[in-house]
Amino acid sequence: MKQFFIFIAFVAISSTTLFAQDNKANNIDNSNIALQGYSPVSYANLSLAQKGLKEFKAMHEGIAYYLTSAEQKATFESNPEKYLPQYGGFCAFGIYAGAKFRVDPNKFINVNGKYFLFLNNLELDAMQLWLDEKDHTKLVAAANGNWQKLSKTHN
Predict the structure, then answer these.
(1) pLDDT of residue 79 exceeding 70
(2) Computed over its alpha carbons, how large is the radius of gyration of the chain?
(3) Can you count the helices (H) and strands (E) in the chain?
(4) Could you read off the pLDDT of 31-54 as tens digits, one per residue?
(5) CA-CA distance, 58 to 143, in Å (whole number)?
(6) Contact 100, 19 (CB under 8 A)
């Protein structure tokens, strides 16, 4: 619980630029590229953060996903929903706390084929806060409830 309050304090003093993506249900850049170009199949199937390549780009609902190979592209295209990041690719701990934050694509956990991404900077390691809580089920339940509202938020 202490970590939650640390996170909330961080949110309160952070600049508003962290909320720049707040009106989107997916954490994408201006080019509609998801996961900062990292492969969703690598996250889900290999538990690895691997940069995808433009030549293996797949589109899903108007968003570009970069994969590492033709095989990964085919895997993604056969069932894209299976490979989408939790909470639209926003920081899982942020969603748990009720806010959307961009992530460090190298900070993630994979639980039962679902991957959760996290904010990480000089001031805060949100993945460590998540792991310190110990009760993944409780965190996911709270984050899922918050995501129902946050994913529909438009400024």
Answers:
(1) yes
(2) 15
(3) 7, 4
(4) 899 999 999 999 999 999 999 999
(5) 28
(6) yes
**pLDDT (0 to 100) of residue 26:** 76
Residue-number span of the structural domain to which 155 is assigned: 1-25+86-155
The residue written with tokens 């899982």 in the block is: 92
* Token pair listed for 122: 């000089």
The rounded Cα 54 to chain-centroid distance in angstroms is: 20
Q: Is the pLDDT of residue 20 over 90?
A: no
Counting the structural domains of the chain, the total is 2
Name residue 42's amino acid: S
Identify whether residues 91 and 104 lie together within a single domain. yes
Q: What region, left, alpha or beta, does residue 98 occupy, with left being phi > 0 and alpha being psi -120 to 50 degrees?
A: left
Cα 125 to Cα 6, 57, 80: the distances in Å are 11, 30, 29
What region does 9 belong to: left with phi over 0, alpha with psi -120 to 50, or beta? alpha
**pLDDT at residue 22 is higher than 90:** no
